[in-house]
Amino acid sequence: MRNLTFRASPTIGRTLKAKTFHALAYLFCLRLALSLCALLASVHIASTEIVLTDIEARELTIAAPARRILLATPSWYPALAILDNEVAKRVIGIGRNPGDTLPEAERDLSGKPRVGSTWSQTFSIEKALELKPDIVIGGRPSRVQSQALESAFAKAGIPVVYVDFDSHPVRDTDRSFEILGRVLGAEDKAAEFVDFYRRHVRTITDRLTTPGLARPTLLMMSRGPSVPCCLASPDNGVTAYFGGLGVENLAGVTNGAPVQFSLESIIERDPDIFVAIDLFSDSRSMFGQPRSLAQGTASLETLKQEPGLRELAAMRNGRVHVLDSYLMRSPLNFVTFEALAKWIHPELFADLDPQATLDEINRRFLKTPLKGPFWTSLDPATDRSFGERR
Question: Domains (ranges, CATH) in the chain?
Fold first, then answer.
């Protein structure tokens, strides 16, 4: 049998090479076209103008979604992170002073340029403008300061959007999430979280309509090294929740400034519930560094033994708690609402578990979870649901 050798003709070889070349060229052009379409789409999104009304009722025209964000109030960062897990990539600067310790909730912002704080009057408009933001997001500064900021940024064509999570949280928290949802192009995520927020708040407010509900007295005192005794939080800001909690805050209502009590007047008023407000996020915190429930409880044990305070009914009955001030002022302020509700009306809210709420927020909404702890009690078991304690 003869061996047969087949040779491709030169014509066929040239034809195959031509077809291969054309196929590759087609795929290259297709890929290039798709890339150009994606680029054009992103440019289109970035240049889309929308009109929104911020929390100060100011109507603004902005390019959305925002790409280069100057976060003048970095404690609002958890709200941005809930709406976009990669939002830290869009934050090009923050309103903190160099050297300030970043709270846990802001650790994604480590390394971001700092332009000073609006709260300590160190905010540098010059440094802020050098970062070339396309939007500034902040909380409510003083009227004089806000006018200066708005004027300077307006000259550069940069809108300033105000949201609020601590001045009037009952009124403004959900609205602020909706505003940020529009700024970030994350309206659906904002709607999801607002629904989550409203359901948790409603769980508390619905029960507080119970007839004949007891109305205990409460004192919230700022605590920390070099913090003088006895500065109490009035019914403003986050404590506005008290209006719906059926409790009498001994500090009453003021223009927002803490109330200075004497130790003698506190002993005379003898509050049923004592909440220490932890002002620090570093080693000065009542939770220590690294933070732990054990250290928080130990700090409360020390507090319980302080002269004067140890005579209070709250101390004798073990109704002594500590609450992180950062969480109170943050977009997650409603978690503190749950903790306070449980401390004020333990039987009514025996099944409430603020830690479970924070765990769900971490699981469903945050890429970088908040570990805390952010609150504890002299008896930590009182912070868990009744079912979990058994």
Answer: 49-197 (3.40.50.1980), 212-389 (3.40.50.1980)
